[in-house]
Specification:
Length: 85
């Protein structure tokens, strides 16, 4: 599951960079297609970041201590409400 989260973050970075370039070029040169593409890119980045967040939450609640963040900020005795917060 952590590989899915990592891949989602990398893909979100690539899409975000494309979205930024498409928005600037679309605005400066008046290309409506690029502006529409940049709007779709924002939605795609939102979905990818949501997927990455869900992967992290899964790692937190399943106590996957192979993930450095989980190992650094949780332990087996931590209650679910504190794990979520």
């Amino acid at each position: 599951m952590t590989d899915i989260g990592y891949a989602a973050l990398v893909l979100a970075l690539v899409v975000a960079l494309y979205t930024a370039v498409a928005a600037v070029l679309g605005e400066r040169r008046g290309y409506a297609e690029l502006l529409e593409s940049s709007r779709n890119g924002v939605v795609a980045v939102f979905g990818l970041l949501t997927l990455a967040s869900a992967a992290l939450l899964y790692a937190l609640f399943s106590r996957d201590f192979r993930v450095a963040y989980v190992a650094g900020y949780t332990d087996r005795e931590l209650g679910p409400i504190y794990t979520f917060s």
